[in-house]
């Protein structure tokens, strides 16, 4: 394919997918570069398989499972993950699910999910961990934010207009903030869906991952907050990839309509 045609095809694909992008300005040693949001996540992609011994309290586990609900979430967000879990330490996790907030063993999560990948927020200390764990356990039994999930699904799709390639970051952030205020204003913050719960735990611990409202953030957004990726919602600091606790890939529909694993 000739270069002009390649550029045109790339531009068309970006416009259709509306993946978040960022232009890195040139420096004395590097040319300008266009960075595109990536959903690639696999041990063979520079990652590694790890055991639970590699985890630390406060680690964020992103997962997917072979269910219709999980597939729908991944299809809507063009990402290979559909659920977020907070690791408490000592082989225990806390999570928000349909029945409400619960605590259970990490072994159960690994047994049930198709993929479990761990990320770590830098800068946590013992005091952060203790506050995070205490708050998370105090929320066990809190109802699930069903309305928030129902409102978040169209928001994830509609906000892609704000992420069109070439839109300056301040404009994109203003667009997304306005859209979230209108579309998610009716969602309650006294009950939680999975990623909202994880972000609220960090906020309550005094170590917020983002300045955005936790109700705006999906598991896919947490995935894109990792180092080297382009986040849709800015993070205070990029999350560090720790490793995969389990990897049995399930089909994912990508932004261009192709099926991948």
TrEMBL record:
Family matches, as Pfam families: Peptidase_C92
Stretch forming the signal peptide: 1-20
Statement: the UniProt record of this protein carries the keyword Electron transport: no
Keyword Transcription: no
Gene3D superfamilies: endopeptidase domain like (from Nostoc punctiforme)
InterPro entries: Papain-like_cys_pep_sf, Peptidase_C92
Keywords, sorted A to Z: Signal
Transmembrane segments: none
Top-level taxon of origin: Bacteria
Protein name, per record: YaeF family permuted papain-like enzyme
Biological source species: Variovorax robiniae
């Amino acid at each position: 394919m000739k270069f002009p045609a390649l550029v045109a095809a790339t531009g068309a694909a970006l416009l259709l997918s509306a993946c978040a992008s960022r232009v890195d300005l040139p420096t004395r040693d590097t040319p300008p570069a266009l960075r595109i949001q990536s959903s690639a996540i696999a041990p063979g992609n520079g990652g590694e398989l790890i055991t639970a011994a590699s985890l630390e309290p406060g680690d964020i586990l992103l997962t997917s499972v072979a269910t219709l609900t999980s597939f729908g979430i991944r299809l809507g967000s063009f990402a290979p993950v559909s659920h977020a879990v907070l690791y408490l330490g000592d082989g225990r996790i806390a999570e928000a699910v349909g029945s409400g907030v619960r605590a259970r063993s990490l072994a159960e999560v690994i047994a049930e999910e198709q993929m479990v990948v761990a990320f770590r927020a830098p800068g946590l200390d013992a005091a952060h961990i203790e506050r995070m764990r205490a708050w998370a356990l105090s929320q066990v039994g809190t109802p699930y934010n069903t309305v928030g999930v129902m409102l978040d699904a169209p928001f994830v799709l509609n906000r892609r207009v704000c992420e069109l390639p070439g839109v300056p970051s301040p404009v994109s952030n203003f667009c997304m903030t306005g859209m979230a205020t209108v579309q998610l204003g009716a969602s309650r913050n006294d009950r939680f869906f999975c990623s909202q719960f994880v972000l609220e735990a960090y906020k309550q611990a005094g170590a917020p991952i983002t300045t955005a409202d936790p109700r705006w953030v999906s598991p896919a957004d947490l995935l894109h907050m990792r180092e080297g990726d382009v986040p849709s919602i800015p993070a205070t600091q990029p999350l560090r990839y720790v490793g995969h606790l389990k990897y049995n890939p399930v089909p994912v529909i990508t932004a261009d309509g192709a099926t991948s694993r």
